[in-house]
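Pilot study result, target chain (149 residues):
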Amino acid sequence: MKRIFVTGGAGYVGAVTVPLLLGKGYEVSVFDLMIYGEDVLEDHPNLTKIKGDIRDKEALKEHIHGHDAVIHLACISNDPSFELNPELGKSINLDAFRPLVELSKESGVKRFIYASSSSVYGVKAEKDVHEDMLLEPLTDYSKFKAECE
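Predicted structure:
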């Protein structure tokens, strides 16, 4: 069985992603501030919920070891939320990213999946926007997402 470590797993995207992973037979560890409560995710025999902050390197180091993959969803999501506290947004969305990647490598994680945002492309004249297009982030939220890519 593959073990997956999901940062932000009790958030908006994680609350949908984690049950899908569990349904496919994965063992999932969710590392999240749990600001919406721990009951966002239903209990499951293959689910471990860890209340933690991705800026806490020691807590990450304690829990990430032994996982095959990391799905990094933790962030201050969207421009309006980010603008409420830009320093907090930067510390979570940008500053915590590289240490998480490095710790994942050191811990033997084989796959690292990062959830970016379509906002990294800015406003395009084209109707169809695709990943080959030039990144043109317009806000700090989207700039930090692009930088982490």
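One observation from the pilot: The chain has six helices and five strands. A full batch analysis is planned for the follow-on phase.
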